[in-house]
Amino acid sequence: MTDNTTAPAGLAAGDRVAGRLYTDPEIFDQELTRIFERTWVWVAHESELPGPGTFKSTHVGKQPVIVTRDRKGELRTLLNRCRHRGASICEKPSGKANGFTCPYHAWSYGLNGQLRGIPYPDGYEGVIDKSELSLKKLRTESYGGLVFATFNEDAEPLEEFLGDARLWIDRFMKQGGGYPIKVLGKHQFKFRGNWKIQLENTTDGYHFPIVHRSWMASVDAETADMMSFMTDPAAITHDLGNGHSVMQMVPEHSDLDADDGTEPLQGRFDDLVAELSKTLDEAQVRKLVRAMHGTGFNLNLFPNVSMSSAFFRVLRPVAVDETWIEHVAIGPDGPPEVDAVNRERLRIHEHFQGPFGFGTPDDAEGWDRVQRGAQGAPEMPILVNRGIGRETRSAEGWPTAHVTDETGMRAAYGKWKEMMGDD
Ligand code: FES
Ligand SMILES: [Fe+2]
User: Fold this and answer.
1) Where's the Rieske domain (predicted)?
2) What is the DSSP-derived secondary structure letter of residue 119?
3) CA 80 – ligand 1 centroid, Å
């Protein structure tokens, strides 16, 4: 392992990384350009952009962008930076508009980023060509309702980048119980730590019974039993390639269509079942209720989004020691009677992931402490070698080990090393 700051790739070595990866601002700056500005970054779920004129503002790495659906319904990602003197042209998190007008000198742009109007244009006669001053556009592609953008014109097509993770995205979307998935709501928080600490956490089954002891103690016995995967040999994690990984905590829910009908529905949902049964048939009710906790796996997509059981977790690197997280609750986009399902899903989400939840606040304490501890001995390794001696290959060829092993972290750092070392 080297301490040469010009070659950060040397700080990751398969089964370990230097603690300095969390604390060195130079490495952080290089990550923004070498990773976040070069690969596909998740920006939206299609349900957030339901029709022409809808938009949301977000970030790709540290750069502000607006995701829009233009008049023709096409998804666009535009840099949120006026071509005049650089002001942000939209500060609303989401909404509907015909276009965007910069608040500073009122240059106005269409939903596709084209510069449409300039006030008092006589000063620009013979000086500028409006057709050359569109908002900067990012490549935008979607898969399974997930919208990604990249600054890199040469990046591989999105589907290629997702590769084998596509199968797991398809499976994740089955939690709509036959209906499409929509965003129900979201909240944001920040923690005083490096973004990779969160990236590691999504497929870290090892911490679950330790950090989430209070959550386990706060739920009903059936839910606690469902999440007691520590000694279940069928609970495994796969390295899916390209930095992506999936951790199957409840393998019998990985493919919700594979239901032999023998698993009883949880007693906590008895009232919900009774309500849904007034209008929906038994098979439909079973599908919806069996998917209440999502798909039983966490899918981590390098570098900034995970599909975790029943929600999306989006990370945004802000500084070497500051990361913003967005938790996006999802549920079926169905007829009005499905509202009862979504109300209950939100309560489950709040109970673990909410600001006063029994899960995420405990995770965040762990992340903060990693950042604080990692100030010490920056070259001393962070170990990600758990289970390396029992890693095998699945039938699909994916490196695979137990759900408590650090296969997912090794997958992410393998991609990190490749991107950071590649000039
Ligand atoms: S900075 Fe946008 S119009 Fe001047
Ligand atoms: Fe956790």
Assistant:
1) 40-149
2) S
3) 12
CB-proximal residues (5 Å) to ion ligand 2:
363
Closest ligand relative to 204 C-alpha: 2
Radius of gyration of the chain (CA): 23
Residue located nearest, by CA, to atom 3 of ligand 1:
105
Ligand 1: residues within 6 Å at CB? 82, 84-85, 87, 102, 104-107
Q: What is the pLDDT of residues 119-142, one digit of tens each?
A: 999 999 999 999 999 999 999 999
Q: Distance between CA 337 and CA 335 in Å, rounded?
A: 6
Instruction: Decide: pTM greater than 0.90.
Output: yes
Neighbours of 120 (CB within 10 A): 8
Whether 163-420 and 41-150 are alike in CATH topology: the answer is: no
Query: How far is the centre of ligand 2, averaged over its atoms, from the C-alpha of 242 (Å)?
Result: 23
Collapsing DSSP to helix, strand or coil, 216 comes out as helix
Q: Residue of the nearest CA to atom 4 in ligand 1? A: 105
Q: Which fold has domain 41-150?
A: Rieske Iron-sulfur Protein (2.102.10)
Give the pLDDT confidence score for residue 423 in this predicted structure: 57
Phi-psi region for residue 388, left (φ > 0), alpha (ψ -120 to 50) or beta?
A: alpha
Burial class (CB in 10 A: 0-12, 13-18, 19+), 278: exposed
DSSP for residue 73: S
Backbone angles phi, psi at 221, to 5 degrees: -60, -35
Q: How confident is the model over 27-63, as pLDDT tens digits?
A: 999 999 999 999 999 999 999 999 999 999 999 999 9
**Among protein residues, the one whose CA lies closest to atom 1 of ligand 1:** 85
Confidence at 3, pLDDT banded by 50, 70, 90:
very low
Distance from residue 186's CA to the centre of ligand 2 (Å): 18
CB 368 within 8 A of CB 193: yes
Q: What is the CATH number of domain 163-420?
A: 3.90.380.10
How far apart CA 122 and CA 306 sit, in angstroms, is 50
206-228 pLDDT, tens digit each = 999 999 999 999 999 999 999 99
Using CA of residue 302, residue 307, residue 313, residue 314, what is the dihedral sign?
positive
Whether residue 361 has a cis bond before it, omega within 30° of 0: no
| Torsion on CA atoms 244, 249, 253, 254, rounded to nearest 10 | 20
60 CB-side CA count, 13 A: 31
* Residue boundaries of the structural domains of the chain: 41-150, 163-420
